[in-house]
Specification:
Layout lengths: L2 H9 L2 H90 L1
Amino acid sequence: MNEDTTQDLNRLSFEERVLAEFAAMHSEIAAMRADIAVLHKVYFRLDERLSTLEEKVDRRLQETRPIWENVLAEVKHANKKLDILAAATLRDVNLIRYARQAYH
């Protein structure tokens, strides 16, 4: 506090000083309430935006799920074909080795 304010407070009675402090506290509380109201509005806007985003993601997931299910089915089918091809190749390699050993 600067000296002028201190001197002003010294001229006031105790009751006037207490009331002045209460008035200052009231102003600070009113400012905090205004800040809280702003934060409350920001929170609800963010909540609305998040809900909108979640809905959009859910819609996109529903739209793309059949595509990914088809891709997965095709990959499984390709893996089965590769397993069959690998088994046949291994069988042929073993036949060739056996044939080489038999003729040597």
